[in-house]
Design brief:
Structural class: alpha/beta
Largest sheet: 7 strands, mixed
Number of strands: 9
Helix content: 25-40%
Distance between the termini: 6 Å
CATH class: Alpha Beta
CATH topology: Rossmann fold
Shape: globular
Strand content: 15-25%
Number of helices: 6
Radius of gyration: 16 Å
């Protein structure tokens, strides 16, 4: 999918946990695979792999490990984002919140932070996953992202961690809707909200 004669839409998926094979990152990878089917270029940021330290106010970027400059470069290059978190104690996990906090280094960019790019929100957990979506919404809004209409609060039973797949057809359908929405909005943003580019 080429937009406005330029490169393909680039989607950055952020998720995972400190546990290998986390359900939240299975969800991110499933969504990115769906986006790739639409011709989207995808990147993934797994908090467990990045292993970023806590944000320390006043600490210069050069003092952080190389994973942070990589993340910031990917965020700048992205046209859209997926934010996904497991639900811990009824809200977003500390690891995901810290990663989003570290995006504050984008605040000196012009335009700053996420620069009005679309963000789709996902969470894994039980009934409290809706609260995680709300926490992610506030973070995305504070980072100047535009949150898409469709989000997905996914029960853990819908994710087969061992095989890395979504096993609930309704969840898969909602995920496809969410992915289509964020990719379409990214294309419209790049073309000034005119006709969808082909």
């Amino acid at each position: 999918m080429v937009h406005n004669g330029a490169t393909r839409i680039r989607l950055l998926g952020v998720g995972g946990s400190t546990r290998a094979g986390a359900a939240s990152f299975v969800l991110v990878r499933a969504a990115l695979a769906m986006a790739a089917e639409l011709g989207t270029e995808t990147r993934e940021a797994d908090v467990g792999v990045l292993d970023l330290p806590l944000l320390r106010e006043g600490m210069p970027l050069a003092s952080y490990p190389s994973a942070l400059p990589w993340l910031l470069a990917e965020a700048r290059a992205a046209d859209a984002f997926l934010f996904c978190s497991p639900t811990y104690l009824g809200t977003v996990s500390g690891a995901i919140k810290n990663l989003l906090d570290l995006l504050s280094f984008l605040g000196s960019d012009d335009p700053p932070y996420l620069a009005g790019k679309p963000v789709a929100l996902l969470a894994v957990g039980g009934a409290n996953a809706a609260h995680t979506i709300t926490a992610l919404w506030h973070a995305a809004h504070a980072l100047d992202g535009v949150v898409t209409q469709t989000s997905a609060a996914v029960p853990a039973a819908a994710v087969d961690r061992a095989n890395g797949v979504i096993v609930d057809p309704k969840i898969e359908s909602r995920l496809r809707r969410l992915v289509g929405e964020v990719v379409d909005l990214a294309g419209r943003t790049r073309t000034g909200f005119g006709e969808s580019a082909e």
